[in-house]
Write a structure and sequence with these properties.
The chain is about 10% helix and about 30% strand. It has 1 helix and 5 strands. It is globular, with a radius of gyration of 12 Å. Strand 3 and strand 4 form a beta hairpin. The chain is mostly beta strands. The longest helix has 6 residues.
Length: about 80
């Protein structure tokens, strides 16, 4: 199982949440891109970055059992 958490403006795009705020999914063996394309996130124009177990990863990274995927929107300042 893979734990997924969206932050900021992306939070409402999580398909489901448990009591700790995680989307628990059977993402083992899928790339981050494949997993995120199965969520409403594929329909957003918000740019984001992803971390697996607190390390920044490319969306081609293949998820393993017990990974924690964090999806953070990119912020712009001015």
């Amino acid at each position: 199982m893979v734990k997924v958490k969206f932050f900021g403006v992306l939070t409402n795009m999580m398909p489901e949440k448990n009591e700790e705020g995680f989307w628990i999914t059977d993402g083992k063996g899928k790339t981050i891109r494949e997993l995120l394309d199965s969520s409403p996130l594929r329909e957003t124009s918000v740019r984001y970055t992803v971390y697996v177990n607190n390390e920044r990863r490319d969306t081609s990274y293949i998820l393993e059992d017990s990974d924690t995927l964090t999806v953070l929107p990119l912020l712009a300042g001015g």
